[in-house]
Design brief:
mainly alpha; MetI-like fold; 2 domains; 11 helices; globular
Length: about 280
């Protein structure tokens, strides 16, 4: 009996195809789609039952979303909003990381910054939006400053907790073996801080786009929040829902298209826990 020869070059491509098929199967057959279907059915049923202009049907909202997308206005307004979010959140990450490292490293810094950070966590985003619009008007400083003030406390808390949870014994052992400071930072400190930094990015970014939308509602001439306000002024509930769903879709795309793959790649060295209880 003659054995069939297998070309080794075919194995990686077959493996990749199988993994892609499994990934697509897991994506399509997922509880998240079951939730979406149930939500749409309940929404449609309630809208038909109420028969009110205040509750648009999913079909009407979908048609509005399609019209906004095909006109190109969505991408123009999204670009304006994302520019403000990226600038403000980048500044919040820099400031929050610096303060978080200081608070996690020394008790004196923790006591110095703690009241300010707690106050920043307690104040709602609406306060930042209103104050910044009053101070800076419709300039880009209003959303950037509001995002910075509202997002950096969440970055501080996560980074500070990460610094406090560092394995001091592992750092001391690295120093006793005379390992350079740069190598300790790259191979010991940063990998340990990575989960906390990623959590800071997720929480802070979620706060950033909410605050940006509020600022655009009160004091802007462009952006998704500005378009939501236009729909509100026209008493068009379907327009408000359409813009909100599209903006939320972009945030989901960033979450599952950028943040989750980045976390999976950067934390690939960590052991995976399949079940806790």
């Amino acid at each position: 009996m003659t054995a069939t020869a297998i070309n080794p070059s075919q194995i990686p491509s077959a493996t990749r195809a199988r993994r892609f098929a499994q990934a697509m199967k897991g994506f399509l057959i997922s509880p998240r789609w079951l939730f979406v279907i149930i939500a749409l059915v309940v929404w449609q049923t309630y809208a038909v039952f109420r028969n009110s202009r205040l509750i648009p049907t999913p079909v009407k909202v979908g048609a509005t979303m399609w019209r906004i997308l095909t006109s190109g206005i969505f991408f123009e307004q999204l670009a304006a909003s994302m520019t403000r979010i990226l600038i403000g959140f980048s500044l919040a990450m820099i400031l929050g990381t610096i303060i978080g490292i200081l608070m996690g490293s020394r008790k004196s810094y923790d006591q110095f910054f703690k009241a300010m950070v707690i106050l920043g966590l307690a104040l709602p985003g609406l306060i930042y939006a209103l104050i910044c619009v009053m101070f800076f008007g419709i300039s880009i400083l209003a959303p950037v400053t509001a995002i910075l003030a509202g997002s950096y406390p969440f970055v501080v808390i996560n980074v500070a907790e990460g610094v406090k949870s560092l394995d001091k014994d592992l750092i001391d052992m690295s120093r006793s073996y005379k390992i350079g400071r740069g190598k300790i930072v790259r191979q010991v400190i940063l990998p340990s801080l990575l989960p906390f930094i990623l959590a800071a990015i997720r929480n802070g970014f979620a706060i950033a786009w909410k605050i940006c939308t509020l600022v655009e509602v009160f004091g802007a001439v462009s952006g998704v929040g500005y378009m939501i306000k236009n729909s509100f002024d026209q008493y068009a509930v379907y327009g408000i829902v359409a813009w909100a769903l599209m903006f939320g879709g972009v945030m989901l795309l960033i979450e599952y298209g950028l943040l989750v793959p980045a976390e999976r790649y950067l934390a690939r060295w960590r052991p995976k826990v399949k079940q806790v209880i």
